[in-house]
Amino acid sequence: MKCEDAAEFVSALYDGERIPREAAEHLGECETCQGRLETYSRMLAEMRRMASLDEATELSAGQWSSKERMRRSWWSKGRQPVQIPRLAFALMLAVIFLLSGGLVLVRARPNLGGPVLLLTYKIPQTGKSVRLAITTDANPETNHRSYNTGNSSGVLYFSVRFVSKVGERVELSVKSAYKKPVGDAKEHDVKDLPEATEETIWISPGENKEILVAGFGPIELSGEFLDHVPALLLSPEETLDPKTNELRIVSPVLVRGKEVVFNGAGSWSIGSGDDDLAVMIYLPSDGRYLISTAPFTGAVEASVGLGQIKFNLQGRDYLLLTAMPTTRSEHVWVTHEPRYRLSQHMKGEPDDREMFLVRSLKTLLAEQMTHYSK
């Protein structure tokens, strides 16, 4: 830590607050900073001593008997010059000089202490950028994120986890891996890949870090602070309006009549770029529902509203509620396959867990769905 960075914590130290370990170690070892601490302590003591020399003056009750007299008293005093002892005035100038010249007790910085770190991964090989957000706290639900992207030739996996924070510097644990699909490969999390490498990095706003992924090459990581938690941490720049050829299913709740048959609160899946995007909702006891932005054989038409999709299947009314508008389309098409079993179409997937995902309709209608790229 540099002297300029450690100076930020002097004020907190004199206020009786705890300061980061790195700052405490620096202030204890650096002779320059110790000299500043001693000077600052003497100035505060002298200013308190000078304040103690002022005699308290009591005002008689008669002086406050009239609002008009009080108003005149204040105006008359306001026009008089303020008398400040020369030593106190010199100390005040010294404090101002030190504050402007380097001993910054409380430095105002943009987004200092912001609760969220917005990270940008740049992948030079593909020209793609990925943005995701994590919280800089101890919440395991929000302080780490995993992501994978690729195609049939290979998939890049990476995850990032918040470790600690000192001022605007953030310590991160980063894992990455690159894997070429073999046989019936399916989606992985980077923590499941034995070839994943892990490294610890420190990053500050505006700083670029390079991460070398074995078998793939370098990717660039940068960050900036946000003063709020985005609604979607994996897609922090999502707006209320969906984009062209985009299907968003966020915290979905599927209602049949008056019965809730599926509740995916807190989860989401977003697809973009294809003109036949569809969501598959799989329920162990009820098969799968397909809702597509493009018509297909056997599907019935459904209406799209703000955050809801209404449809009727076999004489029963359904309502899919979502936390965000789903698509720009005014209509979608829906089917229900009650005998559908996940293991028959996705090798290695169990039949006894609920799931939903957004993919192209062609992929979801395929006999065997072996691999998904995000």
Short description:
With 374 residues, this protein is α+β, with helices and mostly antiparallel strands.
How would you explain this protein's 3D organization?
There is one protein chain. The protein has 374 residues and is an alpha+beta fold. It is 20% helix and 36% strand. It is built from seven helices and 19 strands. A nine-stranded antiparallel β-sheet has the order 11-10-17-16-15-18-14-13-19. It has a four-stranded antiparallel β-sheet with strand order 2-1-8-7, with no helix packed on it. Strand 4 and strand 5 form a beta hairpin. Helix 4 (31-53) packs antiparallel against helix 6. The longest helix has 23 residues, at 31-53. Residues 56-83 and 97-113 have low confidence and may be disordered.
Supply database-style keywords:
alpha+beta; four-stranded antiparallel β-sheet; 7 helices; elongated
